[in-house]
UniProtKB/TrEMBL annotation, chain A:
<keyword id="KW-0874">Quinone</keyword>
<feature type="transmembrane region" description="Helical">
    <location>
        <begin position="29"/>
        <end position="46"/>
    </location>
</feature>
<keyword id="KW-0812">Transmembrane</keyword>
<dbReference type="Pfam" id="PF00499">
    <property type="entry name" value="Oxidored_q3"/>
</dbReference>
<keyword id="KW-0520">NAD</keyword>
<feature type="transmembrane region" description="Helical">
    <location>
        <begin position="86"/>
        <end position="108"/>
    </location>
</feature>
<dbReference type="InterPro" id="IPR042106">
    <property type="entry name" value="Nuo/plastoQ_OxRdtase_6_NuoJ"/>
</dbReference>
Automatic annotation (TrEMBL), chain B:
<dbReference type="InterPro" id="IPR018086">
    <property type="entry name" value="NADH_UbQ_OxRdtase_su1_CS"/>
</dbReference>
<dbReference type="Pfam" id="PF00146">
    <property type="entry name" value="NADHdh"/>
</dbReference>
<comment type="similarity">
    <text>Belongs to the complex I subunit 1 family.</text>
</comment>
<feature type="transmembrane region" description="Helical">
    <location>
        <begin position="241"/>
        <end position="264"/>
    </location>
</feature>
<comment type="function">
    <text>NDH-1 shuttles electrons from NADH, via FMN and iron-sulfur (Fe-S) centers, to quinones in the respiratory chain. The immediate electron acceptor for the enzyme in this species is believed to be ubiquinone. Couples the redox reaction to proton translocation (for every two electrons transferred, four hydrogen ions are translocated across the cytoplasmic membrane), and thus conserves the redox energy in a proton gradient. This subunit may bind ubiquinone.</text>
</comment>
<feature type="transmembrane region" description="Helical">
    <location>
        <begin position="192"/>
        <end position="210"/>
    </location>
</feature>
<keyword id="KW-1278">Translocase</keyword>
Automatic annotation (TrEMBL), chain C:
<comment type="subunit">
    <text>NDH-1 is composed of 14 different subunits. Subunits NuoA, H, J, K, L, M, N constitute the membrane sector of the complex.</text>
</comment>
<dbReference type="Pfam" id="PF12838">
    <property type="entry name" value="Fer4_7"/>
</dbReference>
<feature type="transmembrane region" description="Helical">
    <location>
        <begin position="25"/>
        <end position="43"/>
    </location>
</feature>
<dbReference type="InterPro" id="IPR010226">
    <property type="entry name" value="NADH_quinone_OxRdtase_chainI"/>
</dbReference>
<dbReference type="InterPro" id="IPR017900">
    <property type="entry name" value="4Fe4S_Fe_S_CS"/>
</dbReference>
<keyword id="KW-0408">Iron</keyword>
<feature type="binding site">
    <location>
        <position position="127"/>
    </location>
    <ligand>
        <name>[4Fe-4S] cluster 2</name>
    </ligand>
</feature>
């Protein structure tokens, strides 16, 4: 199990770095897809089948395909990208260092979780239990998420209709 | 016991794999034969008796063809495309039940590679990933027609996946499970889902035509506009993989249709057969019944192909987004209301 | 009768742009009808002729490979007059005449005969003008009942007398048939 975890982690980290470093935007998108797959593998190792599959459907199956779609159609292969000016580069480095500092601090200060997970004997990988938890205990956040999605959808429709409104 | 399970599962997996390949192979022959018969022709009849060896001849021909690789900066992705298509087409069969169970060597053998809790979602996951095969292949071909066709195929598959998922929700609401085995078990006798979910079945059927890139939704391979579609630049066995994957996908989606809506391996009188002839015989008949259903759907795919002309792209999108999705949402609501009323 | 209403084939159908009602706009019934039409063809008799095993019966006026005819006594009719070569629009026919020797009387009907008679089948368009031009009824395109076979070599398409002259046994059979009648 541990070797599997190491292999998966290596793939996740490797593809994540390649996503950033590869010059070709399509390659970078494909590396990101691989990264998502390995994350789904991590979920499977937690015995979270539902999460793993939904992760694949939503991220690899829908979002990344749409992203690839746009990249392929926009033809970003040309060397038209201008490098940013010095100030923004310095600003980026500084903000990254700050973020890294904060993250490091939290990880160092963080204590080992000492929760005792309540063992009710329920099968937590079963979607039945998951559905009950989601729609009983976390009903409001769940519905808020759907409202958020609806808002973004309406926004997208509005953006695509903008030209017609101006005319 | 542990070894027994491993052996049992590997036998089932290999059998299913071989079966999928065989069915895909003979689907190519069936396609040509049925096309010919529907057009008052005879079809291929030279290789073997009545053309029975034609798929082998076709395969041999494809193997012998020149392995042409276009001048593309992405040779690796060019090879990856057909591989993804093929493996995704074969992966779905892992969660499909081919029969209830056999009682052999003193143990019950479930005729399914694996019975996971989220089997239906798994099918959808594999379906959505299979778009990558077409997209990557089409893009790596370095040919604008291939790219355009890949774009078409991808947008079509994404659009119809939505309607497909929504149509299946009504079914899940009714059966209360995502496990395909339990859905199959619930359709005992003539208790087939198609009688309870006719609209859902219709939507699912139309969407599976679109997902399999078959006529009337085969815009990705529209010869008049796009040369040969996303596999224009492919030759030899890489091309064969794409074609093979298409037929394997057709077989799998026929199986899904038969299992989800047409009672899987159930047939009227199965309980009686089980009581009088034993579990094994009843289930072997069940497997045959399932195959008859699958073959009917494969035939239906081909039958429709030679009946309905290809849709225009805007018609396809209008049908998907403006007709099928609202209809499937209405179907969900009506199913919910009826379920509440019945309770 | 107005010109718009005339239907020469009897299959004319009036089309209209009327608005479809709900059921028609679903197309389901139309698709079902279409499916029924195609399935009917599945059970129809196939019109294909499986060629090498079955051959299509030739029509009586079918023009195939030429035959240089023999008369009732088995003598060649051709007198090498050259009218066929003259009439040929494709210039496919060449010949060389020779004078008949007294001991060859049983072979050739006329005093002059074609020593060499060649038709280039690549040039021939099978129009049948040679047949019409022949004053001796010596060349026919309808008698051999064979088609000119495909070859891989251009030389092989030049048919000499060995291939064109009617075989003797065929001439004998013809004579016997005539005697019987």
């Amino acid at each position: 199990m541990l070797t599997l975890f190491y292999i998966l982690s290596a793939i996740t980290l490797g593809t994540a770095f390649l996503t950033i470093f590869s010059k070709n935007p399509i390659h970078s998108a494909i590396y990101l897809v691989l990264c998502f797959f390995s994350i789904a593998g991590h979920y499977l190792m937690f015995n979270a089948q539902f999460l793993a599959i939904v992760h694949i459907i939503v991220y690899s199956g829908a979002i990344m395909i749409l992203m690839l779609f746009t990249i392929m159609l926009m033809n970003l292969n040309k060397e038209g990208e201008k490098s940013k000016n010095a100030w923004s580069q310095i600003a980026a480095v500084i903000s990254f260092c700050l973020l890294a500092l904060v993250l490091l601090a939290t990880f160092i200060k963080a204590q080992q979780p000492e929760y005792n997970y309540a063992t009710k004997g329920a099968d937590f990988q079963s979607i039945k239990v998951l559905g009950q938890v989601l729609l009983n205990d976390y009903m409001v956040p769940f519905e808020f998420a759907s409202v958020l999605l609806l808002v973004s959808m309406i926004g997208a429709v509005l953006l695509s209709k903008k030209e017609h409104i101006n005319n | 016991m542990e070894e027994a399970i491993i052996i049992e599962k590997s036998v089932i997996i290999i059998a299913v794999f071989a079966l999928t390949m065989l069915m895909a192979m003979y689907s190519t022959l069936a396609e040509r034969k049925i096309a010919a018969w529907l057009q008052d022709r005879v079809g291929p009849n030279r290789a073997g008796k009545g053309g029975i060896l034609q798929p082998l001849a076709d395969g041999l021909k494809l193997f012998a063809k020149e392995e042409f690789v276009p001048n593309t900066p992405n040779k690796f992705l060019f090879f990856v495309g057909p591989a993804i298509s093929m493996s995704m087409a074969l992966m779905t069969s892992a969660v499909l039940p081919w029969g209830d169970k056999l009682h052999l060597f003193g143990r019950d053998i479930i005729l399914q590679a694996t019975d996971i809790d989220v089997a239906l979602l798994y099918v959808f996951g594999v379906l959505s990933v299979s778009v990558y095969g077409i997209m990557i292949g089409g893009w790596a071909s370095n040919n604008k027609f291939s790219l355009m066709s890949a774009m078409r195929a991808a947008s079509q598959m994404i659009s119809y996946e939505v309607a497909m998922g929504l149509s299946i929700i009504a079914l899940i609401m009714m059966t209360g499970t995502l496990s395909i085995r339990e859905i199959a078990l619930g359709q005992n006798g003539m208790n087939w889902n198609v009688f309870y979910q006719p609209v859902g079945f219709l939507i699912f059927l139309i969407c599976s035509f679109a997902e399999a890139n078959r006529t009337p939704f085969d815009l990705a391979e529209c010869e008049a506009e796009l040369i040969g579609g996303y596999h224009t630049e492919y030759s030899s066995m890489k091309m064969g993989f794409y074609l093979f994957a298409e037929y394997a996908a057709m077989f799998i989606s026929s199986t899904i249709l038969a299992v989800l809506y047409f009672g899987a391996y159930n047939y009227p009188g199965m309980d009686w057969a089980e009581k009088n002839w034993g579990v094994n015989i009843a289930n072997v008949i069940g497997i045959f019944v399932l195959f008859i259903k699958i073959c009917f759907f494969i035939f239906f795919y081909m039958w429709v192909r030679w009946t309905i002309p290809r849709f225009r792209y805007d018609q396809l999108m209008r049908l998907g987004w403006k007709a099928l999705i609202p209809l499937s949402i209405a179907n969900i609501i009506i199913t919910g209301i009826v379920m509440l009323l019945v309770d | 009768m107005a010109i718009e209403t005339i239907s020469l084939s009897g299959k004319k159908k009036e089309v209209s742009n009327k608005k479809m009602n709900f059921w028609e706009s679903l197309y389901l019934i139309a698709i079902f009808k279409g499916l029924m039409i195609t399935i009917k063809h599945l059970f129809k008799r196939k019109v294909t002729i499986k060629y090498p095993e079955q051959t299509r019966s030739l029509s009586p006026v079918y023009r195939g490979q030429h035959t240089l005819m023999r008369d009732d006594e088995g003598r060649e009719r051709c007198t090498a007059c050259g009218l066929c070569a003259l009439s040929c629009p494709a210039e496919a026919i060449t010949m060389k005449a020779a004078e008949r020797k007294p001991e060859e009387k049983h072979l050739y009907r006329e005093e002059k005969y074609a020593e060499i008679y060649e038709i280039n089948m690549l040039r021939c368009i099978f129009c049948g003008l040679c047949e019409e031009a022949c004053p001796k009824q010596a060349i026919y395109l309808t008698k051999s009942r064979t088609m000119v076979k495909a070859q891989t070599d251009r030389e092989d398409f030049i048919y000499g007398k060995d291939k064109l002259v009617m075989p003797l046994d065929m001439a004998i059979k013809n004579t016997q048939n005539q005697a019987a009648n």
